[in-house]
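Re: export button greyed out
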Amino acid sequence: MGSPANRRENTISPVANMLLNGMFLILSFLCVIPVVLVIIVSLTHIDTLVTEGYQFIPDKLSWIAYESLFKDYGTIFRAYAISIGITVVGTIASVLLMALYAYPISRQDYPFRTFFTFVLFFTMLFNGGVVSKYIIFTQSLGLLDTYMALVLPLLIVPFNVIIMRTFFQTTIHPALIESARIDGASEFRIFFRIVLPLSLPVMATMALLGTILFWNDWFNSLLFIRTEDKYPLQYLMLRVLNDVQYLRNNVQLAAQNPELMSNLPDESLQMALAVVCMGPILLIYPFFQKYFVKGLTVGAVKG
Amino acid sequence: MRQKKSFLIALAIMLAAMLVLQACASDGKEGGTNKSNQATTAPSTEPNAGTETSKPDNAELKPYQVSIVYFGTPEADGALVEEKLNEFFKEKINATVKLVPIAASEYQNRTELMMNTGEKMDLVFSASWLNYFGNVTKGAFLELDELLDKHGQGIKETLHPLYLEAPRMKGKLYAVPTNKEITQGQSFTYRKDIVDKYDIPIETINTWGDLEPWYEKISREEKGMTNLFLAGGSGNSGGGIHMMYETNSNYRPVGPTPGKTQMFLVDYTAPKMEVKSILDPELVDIDKKEFELFRKYYEKGYINSDAGTSKTSAADLRRQGKLWMSSGVWKPGSDIEVKIADNNLYDYVSHVVTEPIVTTDLAAGSMFSISRTSEDPERAMMVLNYLHTDPYVVNLIVHGIEGKHYKKVGDNRIEPIADSGYGTSALFWVIGSQMLNYLKPGQPDDLYINWKKFNDEAVRFPLMGFVFDDSKVKNEIAELTAVISEYKILATGAVANPSKVVDERNEKLKTAGIEKVQAELQAQIDAWWADNKQ
Amino acid sequence: MKERTGIAYFIHSLWKFRFLTIMLVPTFIVLIVNNYLPMFGVFIAFKNINYIDGILGSPWVGFRNFEFLFTSGSLWRITRNTVLYSLTFMAVNTVLSIAIAVAINELRGRLAKTYQTFLIMPYFLSMIVVSYLVYAFLNPDKGFMNASILEWFGLDRVFWYSEKAYWPYILILVNAWKNVGIGAVIYIAAIAGIDQEYYEAAVLDGASKWKQTLYITLPSIQPIIIILTILSMGSVFNSDFGLFYQVPMDSGALYPVTDTVDTYVYRVLMELNDIGMSSAAALAQSVLGFVLVLLTNSAVRKINPDQALF
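Workaround output, generated via the alternate export path:
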């Protein structure tokens, strides 16, 4: 509890403040500059690309990459739809499952708490490796080329469950649960009516973390997805980064205009795809930032 | 104390549960493949049941779905073609087919993973350059000699006998090659308009070095044109290595090629088959000379600057009119094949720089095997026989449906319909018999007659039919692969000081056991020679 | 309360808390399927797999799949790369995150929140997107580095994707760029949680800002630093596959400095098509990581038992 007067005394000098602000301006700038470059490259005209390479201030601009990209909306929209679907379903399932696990092990009176915490914790220490996982998933579970194979591996993040557990432990007073039980509420009622509403910040954080995790995942697609119709966005980008031909072929078919195609630089097409893909996340995250920071820190700091 | 006890009990329960789950999982494995199999068969047979009711002579054959896994880009109308094929096969042998095209860049990884995990497949496209012999050693494919006698009479009648000598391992046949040209001469292929414009004497250009003045000229005169496009991204052989030894010597590759890199060669004109590795001074000289040359080309910008990491195919660049020459393989009609592949945009001319010889690898360059996981190999062989003998089936897969994907303009001649949704993936050299393919615009009428002549006249590589068995040097090959993957991009010119790097590479190859592999290869060749050449 | 025997107590509590148990059963099953079943798959590392006998039936070969790791020297290289990068990342990221957190905490005005928004942005991008960003800078022909920066200084072009000397720095930079911001957020919160009275007392004693940071801020957030460090010790043998595989575009010439256990396992799986050998490498990775966590934890426990994880 510092009085205002005290706090002012303990602040840095205006010069230092300016220096720090300057430093943070530069740092912020460094964080966004690569994204800006990619956006500009995606808009650069082929003539400028050939003669000057990638520039922050190109001589000539062109929308051609985006035009072609959206002519072939089939490929991209499908990938978008798949990514959104997986992200939404995966995130909801993930948050719910993790909360349902975190709550019992947060309860001091639950006798199997130690065991189930250990079961969870052990997965953070040891894993079977990617080869073994691949074989179990494809052989025993038959998940090859299914969306399930993209969701299942990311459902439970042990560290996040621990954060949730800590959150429950610290914010939900045992007396609250005890009194609800005396009123005759069942465990499920207590969980859904009392615990969850009180834990919204951590739920929101987990939802955001889950969204990022599912949206940005490509490794599981690399392992398990075979059919081109099932490519999520990130995997589509991966294919195109290695082989721009793949997207070009599709675009070419849609555009049916060879002249247009010869003016369409590979780089613009690649970079335009990157912009289209990172767009949603960049637009959304500032709105969630508040919850995110709050939830993440409560769990981690007190864990 | 109490807590500890309950913990232990719970632990025991968990372990028990896990064992049960594991057992379930491994049970599910055997059942799983069957189930998924039935599931995929059911929907595809249903629609046909109503359309075809004629009682064929196959009444005793149960319905079966033959999956065909092949090297090709999936196309929009694949399902329509599959439907047509099903109509045909339903009537003939009560079978349906499932077309599984897999794009070039992923083909090997994907099929080998399918083999590893025991996925159900029937006909599988395989080739020497797709690790066919390695997969045979691991038991991926079924022996075909008996099946061929029983259900593959058509294949035996039409296929050049030399073809069936190559894909053998310890005397047993595991694949049936596609019927086409059996070998290819190595060549430089140029765009005709450029050759005419600059009056390039292509007949005199026989090595990479000969191209230098022309690269220089084209770089100066034609802005934006790439002279030599190399894609050295991992998984590729690494560009310029192609034709390096062939244009400079009589050495031809034999034996294992770790990481798709030629490491062991023999002089095919010599009376005695003496194996040399790329550590041999003569070959080191060629390596250094050629790598230095590529480095020079790279630094001068004749080679694409992303050659070290690119995985893009050169065809794309060619179609955009940004590439005027490439190295390749030649057979009668190949220039027109390139032209067709490039939407008839440009004409091409080639100059063949090496004598076409038939090696095991070339004769086994495009084949179909029957997977060990096939549940009805006999039916698979029946389908394969149709692919080799029935023009309707072959052309359906390669060109699509008449009237929809192509127009018939002559007895044996067609015109593809642009952007029709099928027929752009080059399947002619993949499926069955290319000799049954309808001719496309530009292809001469006597194409297939010329091929038969070409095949009959081809020179036989002395070691044709020899196959290396790597089981004794598996670890060494793995190590050589690991070493070479780091140095493959030498051949793209993207590395500075290539001569120095070659020495460094060779040192590591030596440590990795290249000499042991060489000795093993020599021993196997000597044994094979004694058995087959006396 | 009446004394019960172990089993009776167990059954009693099983019944009494059945609803809580039912709650966590679905997740428990997911953990078994996704994490525990693959642990059994490690037996593949001791087998020579062939297609005929299948995975279960193939012959056991003991440690032969591991030999290859040792004889080729690959094990040394990939372990060295993985561990050194992990440690460097940990050190660089922790120091930078704390520095940023301390600095941002001192800022006056409302700008701090805005800076935070920018600083955590890279965290939200996938590694695939990051590889595109890096490629925009390093493309040999047109990349911003070659086409602009080096040209301004009159320097020769650098073929980034085949010059291994630069990559350790590039990788450290990219990693820091992506993760420092989010790390800082955690420390910012930790610093915000420090009781203001300490600072007030320090001001009365005439302690400078620097002294306050050194003697109040850092010691106060020390537990969190330790917890996060122990946790990341567990992944010292793991590497961000995207960072080491996609960002350098899987360029062969860079393997000496970019090859880590994860990329190696993947490549061996894909190129050699030998699941036995790649399982062996993966198992070695898991075991080493496991041992390292135990060691770190026991070391921490020796120094300060309260701060150990278990």
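Residues 1-57 of chain B have pLDDT under 50 and may be disordered. The button fix ships in the next patch.
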